[in-house]
Known about the structure:
Helix content: 25-40%
Number of helices: 8
Radius of gyration: 25 Å
Structural class: alpha/beta
Shape: globular
Order of helices and strands: HHEEEEHEHEHEHEHEHEEE
Amino acid sequence: MSFARRLSPRPAMGFAIFLLGFLSWAVAVLPQASLAADREFGAFGPQGARMREQLWILPSGDPKVPMRATVFRPEASPSGADPKRPLVVINHGTDEATRLAVSMPVYYWMSRWFVERGYVVVLPQRRGHGATGGPLKESIGTCAHPDHYASGNVAADDIAAAVTYMTKQSFVQSNGAIVVGVSTGGWASLALSARNLPQVEAIVNFSGGRGGHAYGQPNAICDEANLLSAARRYASRAHEPTIWFYAKNDSYFGPKLAKSLAQVWSEAGGSVEEHILPPYGTEGHTIADDRAGWDIWGPSLQSFLTRVHEQAPKGVLVAADPSAASMAETSAGAPVSK
């Protein structure tokens, strides 16, 4: 007697019923589990009145830690449709003393500058800050022995996750994104440029760096040589055009350091247009914070974004006087035509 003939029909029928039931459960439950995972991210709550402000939850560089974010959008068309628009990701700085108490990043005036030009703006709150919370993963090492390169890369992981997620939204273009960063967010944006994400068109760096105010002292850097070395490593792989803005009275990353960073960036093969702006208020590190900044960096940024569509800027351009439309000063001090 064969094995098949020895198998009674009742157990076989029972197994078939079990298998059918399992498959029915899988079809019903597994898609729901997938949908639940998808619903973990996205818009959270209604849009507000100012620039359609809305809270979002985004993936971060760690799959287990979602990021909180603010999203601003241009007005919808009269028909109510939302055409696909290019993305801007604005990345905040870090204050170790207040990082867990800070509110959601907004940068209202900078966000408005981009929204008025047709961009969707997202401001992610990276791991270790505010409502996103958790340990500050992007601060690696000590002031005496920092790892500025690895620190920038961890922060760039969060930015990359935000770019990837937002460029898949129905109202956002899949390419042509601009990544903007302020202070440590500027440094993280430079780190991101080394990845040459296909969605990203250009990088905008406001007062970017790490390790400023070393041991509480203005114009002091935690291991400046390490910072310059990290910039060189990023630039050696970066192919995206970048524009940098630093004020002469920035007590965190002053003009001397800013020019040194731009010089090593260019020497390593990176593309950089650097603007050293006049003294700004009582602290030049805040050039991106309010409406007055529009008149200082706005025209140069507009010109840069226009030219990005044609070709990346070459070499190092340092605009000592933003009102001088015809001339700029290189980091070596020689004037060149714009």
